[in-house]
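[agent] plan:
  1. take the single chain provided in the ticket
  2. run structure prediction with default settings
  3. attach structure tokens to the ticket
  4. add a short note for the reviewer (M.T.)
[agent] executing step 1
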Amino acid sequence: MEARCIRMELTADQQREVQEIMAQMRCAKNFECSKSEFEVLGNAKDFGVEHYIECLEPESHRCKFALCFGSRDLCTCPLRIYASKNLKK
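[agent] step 2 finished; step 3 output follows
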């Protein structure tokens, strides 16, 4: 049996919100996450803080959106945070 990847379709409101976020930022990765319908994402975990998620990427310190806080590397990318908190990605 062949495995299939089921892609998530964004609602019109979600598409609008994503476009608004993208218009307000620059992305060194050329918005690869959005172009892949949020299938290509850096590994991260929502830990319950409203404006941050924890970055689990091994080279997170190289990212312009990385913020070291104690023993955690936090992600401050607005689009990645939106995907984590609103799309559960």
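[agent] step 4 note for reviewer: Confidence is low (pLDDT under 50) at residues 1-6.
[agent] ticket updated
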